[in-house]
Amino acid sequence: MEILVCIKQVPGTTEVEVDEKTGVLKRDGIDSKMNPYDLYALETALKLKEQIGAKVTVISMGPPQAKEIINEAYMMGADDGALFSDRKFAGADVLATAYTLSQGIRKMGNPDLIICGKMTTDGDTAQVGPEIAEFLQIPHVANVQEIIELKDNSIVVEKDMPETVEVADIKYPCLITVEKDIFQPRLPSFKLKLKTKDKEVPIYSLKDFNDKNEKNYGLDGSPTQVKRIFPPQANTDHEMWKGNSEKLTDKLFDKLEELKFI
Amino acid sequence: MEFKKIDQKDIDYLISVCGEDRVFLGDEINEDFSHDELAGISNYPEVLVEVKETKEVSEIMKYANEKNIPVTPRGQGTGLVGSAVALHGGIMINLSTMNEILELDEENLTLTVEPGVLLMEIAKYVEDHDMLYPPDPGEKSATIGGNINTNAGGMRAVKYGVTRDFVRGLEVVLPNGEVIEVGGKVVKNSSGYSLKDLFVGSEGTLGIVTKAVLRLLPLPKKTISLLIPFPNLETAIETVPKIIKSKTIPTAVEYMVRDVILASEEFLGSKFPDNTSDAYLLLTFDGNSKEEIENVYDKVAHICLDAGALDVLISDTQERQESIWSARGAFLEAIKASTTEMDECDVVVPREKVAEFVKYTDDLQDKFDIKIRSFGHAGDGNLHIYVLKDELSEKEWKEKLDGVFDCMYTKANELGGKVSGEHGIGYAKKKYLEKSLGKEGMNILKNIKKSFDPKGILNPDKVC
Fold it and tell me: Is pLDDT at A29 greater than 70 in this prediction?
């Protein structure tokens, strides 16, 4: 079985400041890391590999330094990797990103299963995964919280919907995006670090893709127009109550009821 | 010791100092205030008072001293040896309501706080200002006052030292109600006996800390931990001296076993990144960049692999650190939740003796047919060994516990160790301190106590 995992490099901290004038993230001096949600995707792939013996390949789109996260995936047990990097990919919105990744995936072969994290911590859209599947014209299920069964030609998964939990049986090739905590991600291994330190990370650019039309990539291929970026308002309102435990319990109960939490 | 019992006049006085809202009697006193985290001993104070300022503490002490009423100072009650239990009733002063952060002095690198500020509040506050308060005990909801009074150590002691090393100055209310300041914002101090150092670790027996000036360090920009699986505990612990000898200085060197990890997974309801091996070392390194730390840990990782480690797992992001350290911080609570009752031994031994001591305690399980769990600071020789009651009858439990403790403290003594590494003596460990210090040593402690508190009203029957 061939499993492909999509990963992204994101800022290392969640407290990134936004320049209010230009709307650009202040990335200076900030470490980067693999998108935490992608760790769950990679762990899912590695667990399936342990279970049935699959080949796990990771891919990413980003600037050349995004090689770091491919190397990190090698340190966690991924067998292969590739980075799609080209100046012409820059400024891509979700649609152009998904299109670029779908072109790259075609280049890589025909995986049976593609796994993505639920979303990224910098973009928060949760759209790239399903859009890749649409471009590849394969079935997809988002918000998967459990892998129930691996069959010969399909995978049975449980997905978390806002009010229900649904079970789906999807034929390969297909794409799933997985929830946080589907598995606890393993830590990178120093032994694998030593073993894979000379392992190459192939970099593919536009000229390697089937569709070489620049207009479909990067800023040109992005219908989204960003008007303004601003940090969300943080609400730190709080009330302090004093009294004995009985009164406080009643008060808390009333408050939770008033807020319709219970 | 004969103390005066609380009467209406005393209550009226306390109300005149603190107001009716902050004086609690009888049923108004929550059960929590009758014991600490390890409920080996329990007793209610006759009256509980919440204080807001030094003046109130001073007036209460002056009154109690005149009337011969015992006073027990208390923070969050997270202690483990009964130091904050009102053995003789009397007045309990709850200092957790004195909880303001008073000043961050970025020119002297100090933080001035009231005693009731929680450790986790201090950590967050100073980190937001790119500073570090290094002492890092597992119990983050303890008060700084409590930490000062036990000279808490915690996980970063290997590199940075313990609470005493980070207290620059104190404001203390003496048993007679007088307020004195010891130490200060100064870096050096050779001005007579160091009273500051005497108050640190005195478990509320010499005076009540009402303000503390803490020493801060610039915050290292990056922290990376290594979780190192070993085939067994012995191999894991025997590796520690090799790491220390390599002259790399980790901020923390902890050891843990699979059973304790599983207990914490169950307790927290979240998975640890790895639980497939029997024993682990957990090392942390800090520095200013990922590359700088990688250079250091590379050497240590090779030492561990050569010593028989199964692998070296790298934790280099906030999420990975949280998945490990939240579990580490919950070990005590997790073990506690897994049994009916437990007691602990918090000895410290020279670092090269850790393996021998841990092996010895492991063997005691068979000798006494009782469950013993441990984890601890392998890097500084401070061990936390828990004896679990499980389904034993009260009588069997007491007998076995006494037997196990006698063996452990005797062994620690033989190895050149001390009774407590960081949890203190309180009431529970007094007899072991007597054995370890000897008569002369205990006499000096008693005379020191007497010179601070001639009437013996402040936290009586604790330490000595």
Answer: no
